[in-house]
Structure formats: C-alpha cells, structure tokens
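Prompt: For my understanding, could you write out one protein's sequence and backbone structure tokens?
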Amino acid sequence: MSAFPYILAATVVVLASAFLRLLYVLPAFNPTKSPPRLRGQPTRLLVVLGSGGHTSEMFSLLHALDPNLYTHRSYIVSSGDDFSASKAVEFERALETKRTYKRGASLVPSTYDISIIPRARKIHQPLLTTPMSSLRCLVACFTILRAPSIQQCSPAMSKKNQTRKVVADALRYTYPDLIIANGPATAVLVIAAALLLRFFGFRGSEGKMRTIYVESWARVNSLSLSGKILVGCGMVNRMMVQWDNLSRKGRGDFIGALVQ
C-alpha cells in the first residue's frame, strides 16, 4: 500500500496545528489581558529605537516613565546609530533623578542595558541583499529578547563592585514584559522574533513580550510601512495613532497626541 495518503494526512495535521498555534499567539486573533503586577515587581521594558526623529519621538513618549514600575529598561539600537545610544544614556541619567524610594516600595534596583544589532537594511542598500541583512538582524533579536545584554549600566550604582552588581541584578530578568516601538523597520523584526519565540513555546515566554506600536506623529493620513505590516498581520497587542483621522479609518487607538 502506498505511503502517500499517510504522508498527506500527516502534512495536513501539521499545517493545521501550526495555523491554529499561529492564531493563538497573534494578539489580533487572541487578545489577552496582561497579568497583574505589583509596583516594584521586577519588570523589563524593551524599547526599540530608530534614528533621528524616531528616537526623539520615543523619548518624548517616555517622558513620564516611572522607573519604580519598569525596573529594567532594555534599549535596542541599530549599528552605527551613536545618536540613539547617547540619547538612551542621557535619558537614563535624567530618569534616575525621578526615582523615588517610598515607604513600602520594592527594593528592586533600577537598571538598564543597551544592545546593538545589525541594521535590517542600510541606506541605499540593494534590495537583493536585504533578505540576508534582515535575517542577521532577526537572529540578533532572539538573543536580546531572551535576556538583557549588559553594555551600559545605571548611573545610580556606585563605582565599587558596579559590574558585578549590574550583572547580578540583570540575571533576574528574562523575556521583556512589554515591547514598545514607534516606526523603524527594526521594530517589525523585533516583534516578529518575539512572536516566533512564543510560537515555539520557549520556556518562560508565556504571558511575556506584549507589544505596543505607536505610529509616528508625522503619519497623518496613512500608516508607515512598518505600521501597515504589523497591523495587517495582527502582530501587536495595541496600535496607537496620534491623529484622529487615522483612528476613524480603523487604523489604531487615538487618545491624543503622545509626543510632547
């Protein structure tokens, strides 16, 4: 008897299972509420930085960030983007002055790290080589998502035993609890990597890596290419737009201009 019917049946079962699993992990098809968290509980926020205007907008969005709530911040920066890396350090120095130690608050240290990843596509890069550079970027995203990469440390920590303490504090964090992005193409690959980790059920990824995408203030009538991909594929938990015009078109949630 031919084995073809059995192979065909097995293939159909595998494809159907993969499709159902994909629907389960895609936020648009399986919206879930974030688990309750106590103030001061170790919580990792991952911020995807673009360059120039995207970076400036992102830190404007984060101006009211509470370091007692998001106790570890991870910043993803594309290679060669020294501007974004320096802005992240500058932001963290300013953020430390806001950190308060109230009675009853957790003593979890407030830390951060900055990770450099290969660019998904360089300016004027031929489209023919883009898939390979995007793949390198995607692979780098997996490593960053699974644990912080200590390349910069919180300025609040004393110089004595600084490196050892930063590493010890960072080891308590694994996958980010929340990912926030606002435009760069790298954001699509970071979010895709997060979905793949959840798709294959990596230990500890369940309930983690919720995503918020904030469309650029400059996008008045239509979404950016990154926004169209993420919304069209149902890859984000929440899509925020900064113009009511886009909200009326069903492109995202509008609660006013978010950039100060």
